[in-house]
Write a structure and sequence with these properties.
By secondary structure, the protein is α/β, with parallel strands linked by helices. The protein contains nine helices and twelve strands. InterPro entries: FAD-bd_FR_type, FNR_nucleotide-bd, OxRdtase_FAD/NAD-bd, Riboflavin_synthase-like_b-brl. It comes from Urochloa decumbens. Pfam families: NAD_binding_1 (PF00175).
Length: about 300
C-alpha cells in the first residue's frame, strides 16, 4: 500500500520512513518526540497492542490448565526410601479424573511455594484409569527439583496438576488376545509406574499364553511395588526381576532388563508377539531392534509416547 500511495499522490517533501524494526536509538526520548506520518499510526497501534494481547492470553491459558488438589498420601515406595508413592485427591476435580482414559498417560505437576520457583515435573499416572477420584504417582526424589518437593509433602498439602496428556499405550494393536499370545513387558526404575497402570487396568493377560515382565532395578531395596507382585502373578504375569547391583545372596537375573531377555528370548511365534516398553531409551532401542530382527511387527511394540 505504501508503494501505491507514492505513485498516485503528488510529490511531497522528503520525510524519513518509519522503521517497523526500530534501532535502539529510535526508542530514545528525543526520537519518540518526532512527529510520525498519520498513515503510520494504525501500524504502530497494532504493534503496541500485540504484546499485551499475547500476555493476557498466556495468563488466561495458564490459569485454565492448572487444577489444585490436595495430597492424600505420601510414603516410601522402596526399602531404601529413594522412591516415593504420592496420591492426590481428585474429589473436587472429577473432570480431570475422567480425562484419564488410557494406561501410559501423563501430566505435569507443580508444588505452589513461596520459595524458589521450580519447573513442573512430568509424571506418569501410576493408578489405572477408572480407579476412582485420585491419581497416584511413583516419584524418585532428585535434589533441587519438583520431584524432591513432592516427596516431602504431607497429607493435605496442595499441588497443582496440568491436563492429562498423551494417548497412552495403543493397546488396540495387541487386542484381542489372539493378536498377541505372547506379550513381553519391559520396565526400569520408575518406569514401572505405567506398567502398574497397564496391569491393573487389564489387557487380558490371563487370556494369553505367555506374558513376561522384565523389571530392572539396582537392587531389591530400590525396586517398587514388590507388595503387588502376587496380585500381578495371579492376573497372568510372569515377573522376572533383573538387578544391576545385587548383593551376593541374589540368585536371579543380573544386569539390565533387556540383557536378561536377550539371553532367554524364547519367542515361539513372532507374528503373535507384542511388547510394551517403558524405561531408558537405550533399553527400548535394544529391545526393539532384537524383536524386529526376530520377525515381531514394529506396530505391536508399544510405547506410551
Amino acid at each position: 500500500m505504501a508503494a501505491a500511495a507514492a505513485i498516485s499522490a503528488p510529490p511531497r517533501p522528503h520525510r524519513p520512513a518509519l522503521s517497523l524494526h526500530p534501532s535502539p536509538s529510535s526508542c530514545s526520548p528525543a526520537a519518540s518526540a518526532s512527529p510520525l506520518p498519520m498513515r503510520a499510526l494504525p501500524i504502530l497501534r497494532r504493534r503496541l497492542r500485540r504484546p499485551l494481547t499475547t500476555a493476557v492470553h498466556a495468563v488466561k491459558q495458564d490459569a485454565a490448565v492448572w487444577t489444585p488438589a490436595p495430597v492424600s498420601a505420601v510414603g516410601a515406595a522402596t526399602v531404601d526410601g529413594s522412591i516415593f508413592h504420592v496420591a492426590v485427591d481428585l474429589s473436587d476435580a472429577a473432570g480431570l479424573a475422567d480425562s484419564y482414559t488410557s494406561p501410559g498417560q501423563y501430566l505435569q505437576i507443580r508444588v505452589p511455594s513461596a520459595g524458589e520457583e521450580l519447573k513442573p515435573a512430568f509424571m506418569a499416572v501410576a493408578s489405572p484409569p477408572g480407579a476412582g477420584a485420585r491419581f497416584e504417582f511413583l516419584v524418585k526424589s532428585v535434589p533441587g527439583t519438583t520431584a524432591e518437593r513432592l516427596c516431602g509433602l504431607r497429607d493435605g498439602d496442595v499441588v497443582e496438576l496440568g491436563a492429562v496428556m498423551g494417548k497412552g499405550f495403543p493397546l488396540e494393536r495387541i487386542t484381542p488376545a489372539d493378536a498377541a499370545q505372547t506379550v513381553l513387558i519391559f520396565a526400569a526404575g520408575t518406569g514401572i509406574s505405567t506398567i502398574r497402570s497397564l496391569v491393573e487396568f487389564g489387557f487380558g493377560a490371563n487370556e494369553r499364553s505367555d506374558v513376561r515382565l522384565y523389571y530392572g532395578a539396582r537392587s531389591l531395596e530400590t525396586m517398587a511395588y514388590q507388595d503387588r507382585f502376587e496380585n500381578w502373578v495371579s492376573a497372568g504375569l510372569k515377573i522376572i526381576p533383573v538387578l544391576s547391583q545385587p548383593d551376593d545372596s541374589w540368585k536371579g537375573e543380573r544386569g539390565y532388563a533387556q540383557h536378561a531377555f536377550l539371553r532367554a528370548k524364547n519367542i515361539v511365534n513372532p507374528s503373535s508377539t507384542g511388547a510394551v516398553l517403558c524405561g531408558q531409551r537405550q533399553m527400548q532401542e535394544e529391545v526393539t531392534s532384537a524383536l524386529v530382527a526376530d520377525g515381531v511387527s514394529q506396530a505391536k511394540i508399544l510405547t506410551n509416547f
